[in-house]
Amino acid sequence: MTILDKIIARKQEEVAERKALISAKELEMKGYFAKTTNSLKTSLLNPSSSGIISEFKRKSPSKGIINANVTPEDVTFGYVQAGAACLSVLTDIDFFGGSDDDFLRARKANPSIPMIRKDFMIDEYQIIEAKSLGADVILLIAANLSPQRIKELGKLTKDLGMETLLEIHDEEELNRSLCEYIDVVGVNNRNLKNFSEQNVNASLELAEKIPANCIKISESCISQAETIKLLKSVGYRGFLMGETFMKTENPPKALADLIAQL
């Protein structure tokens, strides 16, 4: 059983537990459900955008604890002040140490920037839940979803006024997963089955294979300004970065320093 298999098995249990506590109808009546969406597409297409999607991430299955000494509101507010184009906040508890509370605290501190709920989405309930948390963008991971499920979850996301980020790892996932409900395509440079690889080869290999009308972002294994410049040269508009910043004592300063080099 791969790490991804273990995550999805636990996620199925977690979703069932959450449904027993609060119904989807109740979620639609609370929190940020009525909030207008902040568009990731608009942010990334802005000529003055840094393109950097800065992530609040406490730990990972491969690295363990990355940073336990910071708060989501301080880090994400600092990211926005430094020039982030978008925020990504982990809400998976068991494997990434995230929580809904982390997302809500970041949302309250940053009402106007696009925010991705970073989790393993397998059920419509999670989409409704994300909307109530104030998410603007839903992550759908091709590695753990069938093309039909991507369509179904993507349609609900669109119907609720949010945007969909489709995460792929290779050409096969791209070809079977693209559909009319996808707003942004993200190439994850890290293999989710073993959380290995430390380069952006996947993004470089897929750059010309992603349709030209798709906004594309590169995810993970990015740490240098030169890497971002290279990815920009082959058409990437967004760059999702978490550990590069989070492993430092002052994540917002690490982001500001990187943007200065760009």
UniProtKB/TrEMBL annotation:
Keyword Amino-acid biosynthesis: yes
Pfam families with a match to the protein in the record: IGPS (PF00218)
Class of the enzyme per the UniProt entry, highest EC level: lyase
UniProt GO BP: L-tryptophan biosynthetic process
Keyword field contains Amino-acid biosynthesis: yes
Gene3D superfamilies: Aldolase class I
Catalysed reaction equations from the record: 1-(2-carboxyphenylamino)-1-deoxy-D-ribulose 5-phosphate + H(+) = (1S,2R)-1-C-(indol-3-yl)glycerol 3-phosphate + CO2 + H2O
Biological pathway: Amino-acid biosynthesis; L-tryptophan biosynthesis; L-tryptophan from chorismate: step 4/5
Key words of the record: Amino-acid biosynthesis, Aromatic amino acid biosynthesis, Decarboxylase, Lyase, Tryptophan biosynthesis
E.C. number(s) listed in UniProt: 4.1.1.48
Cited CDD domains: IGPS
Domain Indole-3-glycerol phosphate synthase intervals: 4-257
GO MF annotation: an example: indole-3-glycerol-phosphate synthase activity
PANTHER family, alphabetized: INDOLE-3-GLYCEROL-PHOSPHATE SYNTHASE (PTHR22854:SF2), TRYPTOPHAN BIOSYNTHESIS PROTEIN (PTHR22854)
NCBIfam families referenced in this protein's UniProt entry, alphabetically: PRK00278.2-4
Designated name of the protein: indole-3-glycerol-phosphate synthase
Species this chain originates from: Arcicella aurantiaca
Lineage: Bacteria, Pseudomonadati, Bacteroidota, Cytophagia, Cytophagales
